[in-house]
Design brief:
The protein is built from 16 helices and 3 strands. By secondary structure, it is mainly alpha-helical. The protein has 3 domains: 45 residues, Ubiquitin-like (UB roll) (Roll), CATH 3.10.20; 79 residues, no CATH class; 248 residues, Type II secretion system (T2SS), domain F (Receptor-associated Protein, Up-down Bundle). Strands 2-1-3 form a 3-stranded antiparallel sheet, covered by helices on one side. Helix 3 packs across helix 4. The termini are far apart.
């Protein structure tokens, strides 16, 4: 259960935040052990739509996480204790959500939790791969390298998302305007034209008739259509956040041809980079795979990676286990890892896998981004042409009958 609390620190500073506990008494006990004077503890209910919207805009952005990881790496390289480093980072962080999460992490560490355990308690702010990589760093002692890796990785993910969103902004605005104009024409203009065509006995093309029927329906039921659209959108968003919805979306990412070409190289680049870092840190292959399974961002890959880790524990070669899943890991991956196993350079092979698929993912993404705008513009041009043809051809026939 999640509880929202108000408390004061030993210095008299007001603190507001959330704590997870089995009941209210346990929540108070946890806060007290952190040295807080508890003023109120209230069970947090499921967030409504407005709460979700506010949380969306208040969330920590990828840029904030990149800065956090880079500054953490710098402070740790200066041999500053982790607790002191987090306190400094909290003072320098402008994002309210991230600053609160850093404070909670600092308090949890002071209470005896490990860094990874404290991060796991802030899963709404830090992605799973942050927690898993930090857990691996705690085993290997290479926290500095992991912090730099997290910063580089998060920055790359942010650049990719920014590139795609930038390419979609203009077409999305044009598409929304087109939908609005088309809705007005269909609901309020086309029905009047239909009466004129009917009175003059104009023969209508089938596509014009379809649009007129749609317009007549919208004219009578447009409020219900708008409400139904909003309700379906909310239900769709809620379903996408469930385990079943997440699994369905993850499966679509590797089944739909276009999505597959973009997503699989990204996953394999992530797989190679993370595996190379983990193996470099001295973590056994099976344990590295378990950590990797939480970093690949896909439930299907997570389950498959778990199975590969089990096979490796039972004595199978990594390359042989990966070769069982050619739909997820192309033959090139298993072949390169087989070479690494033979030569004893498995870490280097992971790095080469990462290099190959990073280059491929960059090429595919760049090509897709370059094609998004012209494809959408051509599609909207065809829709506009159909819309105007549905009106102009009957009007031309009408004027021809008059003459």
């Amino acid at each position: 259960m999640k509880f929202k609390y108000q408390a004061k620190t030993k210095d008299g500073e007001m603190q507001v935040g959330f704590v997870e506990a089995t009941n209210r008494d346990m929540a108070v006990s946890i806060l007290t052990t952190h040295g807080l004077f508890v003023m109120s503890v209230v069970e947090e209910s499921e967030p409504g739509l407005l709460d979700r919207v506010s949380q969306f805009f208040a969330r920590a952005k990828q840029k904030d996480l990149v800065i956090f990881a880079r500054q953490l790496a710098t402070l740790l390289e200066a041999r500053l204790p982790l607790g002191d480093a987090l306190k400094i980072l909290r003072q320098q962080t402008e994002n309210v959500t991230l600053r609160e999460a850093i404070y909670q992490i600092s308090q949890d560490i002071d209470a005896g939790l490990s860094f990874s355990q404290a991060l796991a308690r802030q899963g709404h702010t830090f992605p799973d791969y942050y927690t898993e990589m930090v857990r691996a760093a705690e085993v290997t002692g290479n926290m500095n390298e992991v912090a730099v890796f997290l910063a580089d990785y998060t920055e790359k993910e942010g650049d990719l998302a920014s590139k795609v969103s930038s390419a979609l902004i203009y077409p999305a605005i044009v598409l929304l305007l087109f939908v609005a104009v088309a809705f007005v024409l269909l609901a309020f203009v086309f029905p009047s034209l239909g009466d004129v065509f009917a009175q003059n006995g104009v023969t209508l093309p089938w596509y014009t008739q379809v649009l007129l029927d749609t317009g007549n329906f919208l004219q009578k039921w447009w409020p219900a259509v708008l409400v139904a659209g909003v309700v379906l959108s909310v239900l769709g968003i809620n379903y996408a956040e469930t385990d079943e919805g997440i699994a369905l979306i993850d499966e679509a990412k590797i089944r739909v041809p276009i999505a597959k070409k973009v997503f699989i190289p990204v996953v394999l680049a992530r797989f190679g980079n993370s595996a190379a870092l983990l193996v470099h840190g001295g973590i056994p292959i099976a344990q590295s795979l378990e950590i990797l399974s939480h970093m690949l961002g896909n439930t299907l890959y997570r389950d498959i990676t778990h199975q590969i880790a089990d096979d490796v524990r039972q004595g199978s070669l990594l390359s042989e286990s990966i070769a069982k899943y050619p739909g997820y890991f192309p033959p090139l991956v298993s072949q390169m890892l087989a070479v690494g196993e033979t030569t004893g350079k498995i870490e280097e092979m992971f790095g080469r896998v990462a290099t190959i698929y990073t280059r491929e993912s960059d090429e595919v993404t760049n090509n897709l981004v370059d094609l998004i705008q012209p494809i959408m513009m051509i599609g909207m041009g065809l829709m506009v042409g159909l819309l105007f043809a549905s009106v102009l051809i009957p009007i031309y026939n009408l004027t021809a009958n008059i003459h």
